[in-house]
Write a structure and sequence with these properties.
Elements (H helix, E strand, L loop, with lengths): L1 E5 L5 E9 L2 E9 L7 H15 L6 E4 L3 H13 L4 E4 L1 H13 L2 H18 L2 H10 L12 H14 L1 H7 L3 H4 L7 H12 L1 H24 L10 H15 L3 H6 L2 H4 L6 H11 L3 H16 L7 H5 L7 H11 L19 H9 L17
Parallel strand pairs: 4-5
Antiparallel strand pairs: 1-2, 2-3
Pfam family, one: DUF659
InterPro entries: DUF659 (IPR007021), RNaseH-like_sf (IPR012337)
Length: about 375
């Protein structure tokens, strides 16, 4: 197993370890600062370790999933016919979660959350005020990776939603100089008046928590989990799909997202084809969607354009319009947030990467989110 990291002096260090039924032992540590992390160099490094240990004693080589290691691992398997190469499940899962956070919808939510935390933590008075309403809890909880920091911040922000809103209607806040400044008014409007922001946090949590539980499983040191990874990922995907049942079609009818990203139309077309078998109805829907997408007809009116990214009831309004035209389009209501179990050990794990004590066989994917 290889594990790369950077020390306090900025040197790139790669540790090599060996795992067996007897446990894990440290083999060696190599300073790779002066070595180009190319496919060829990584292959030579891994191959030399296999040669040193003995090919007959190596069953599997495990690395992270950066492209150089992926190519090096494939090349190693071509040369060493008896061993397998695999990427680190924890690293892959963490990268998946980071990619989810980079989606425009979630990136915008994370950006707004960062604005709120930055504004509050720039002023001692506001820090004391939020702690007062939050029973001493901090709004920021830094994690080991970018993803864990994002998850912990939004999770904590959702948990402290009432405390945050209370802060911005508190008399001490209203009388403070911050409430009269443009930044203060912006944060107040975001926290108190922007319902879509809080809905977006829920969407983010519903997107990532099933995968976070997989990350907790594969990154723990308490039990071998190789035999459980496939099932855990399968359950996580099913859970995410359940959380966002038919979400592509519902996404399409929310103007703030439709006018920003047309990829969701694929899910919409599939939904229409499954729901309506007759061609005339499909054509009617297609004509309406074309007006919607191009902002033509009523969608071209100034009021429609101004409220496109402001109005929270876009899907419901469109549902009413289509019913007037004699076309029934089923649109799911808002996905309701299922209260998390407030598992502090879970968040502590993400922050410090400590081993948990839950039963691996239970997988813990189906609960809550």
């Amino acid at each position: 197993m290889s594990d790369g990291w950077t020390d306090g002096r900025g040197r790139s260090i790669t540790n090599f370890l060996a795992n067996s039924p007897s446990g894990t032992i440290f083999l060696k540590s190599i300073d790779t600062s002066s070595i180009s992390h190319s496919c060829e160099n990584m292959f030579e490094l891994l191959d030399s370790l296999v040669e040193e240990i003995g090919e007959d004693h190596v069953v599997q080589v495990l690395t992270d999933s950066v492209s150089a290691y992926v190519l090096a691992g494939e090349k190693l398997m071509e040369k060493r016919k008896k061993l397998f190469w695999s990427s680190c499940a924890a690293h892959c899962t963490d990268l998946m979660l980071e990619d989810i956070g980079q989606l425009p919808m979630h990136a915008n939510t994370l950006s707004k959350a960062k604005q709120i935390t930055t504004f509050i933590y720039q002023h001692t008075l506001l820090i004391n005020m939020i702690r007062k309403f939050a029973n001493g809890y901090d709004l920021i909880w830094a994690g080991v990776t970018r993803f864990t920091t994002s998850y912990l911040t939004l999770s904590r922000m959702h948990e402290l939603k009432k405390a945050l809103r209370s802060l911005f209607v508190f008399e001490e806040w209203l009388n403070s100089p911050f409430a009269k400044k443009s930044d203060g008014k912006k944060m107040e409007n975001l926290v108190v008046g922007d319902a879509k922001f809080w809905d977006a946090i829920v969407y983010y949590l519903k997107s990532v928590i099933p995968l976070v539980k997989v990350l907790r499983l594969v990154d723990g040191d308490f039990k071998p989990v190789m035999g459980y990874i496939f099932e855990a990922m399968d359950r996580a995907k099913e859970k995410i799909a359940k959380n966002f049942d038919d979400v592509s079609s519902r996404f399409h009818f929310d103007p703030i997202f439709n006018y920003q990203d047309e990829k969701v139309t694929v899910g919409l077309i599939q939904t229409i084809e499954r729901t309506y078998s007759d061609v005339p109805t499909r054509l009617k829907i297609d004509r309406q969607l074309e007006n919607f997408k191009k902002a033509e007809g009523m969608f071209l009116m100034d009021l429609a354009i101004v409220t496109r990214d402001k109005k929270h009831s876009g899907p419901r309004n469109l549902q009413m319009q289509t019913k007037k035209k004699g076309i029934k389009i089923e649109i799911q209501e808002e996905i309701q947030y299922v209260e998390n179990d407030n598992d502090e050990e879970f968040d502590e794990y993400l922050n410090q990467r400590e081993a948990g004590d839950s039963d691996v066989a239970n997988l813990d994917i189906d609960d809550d989110f």
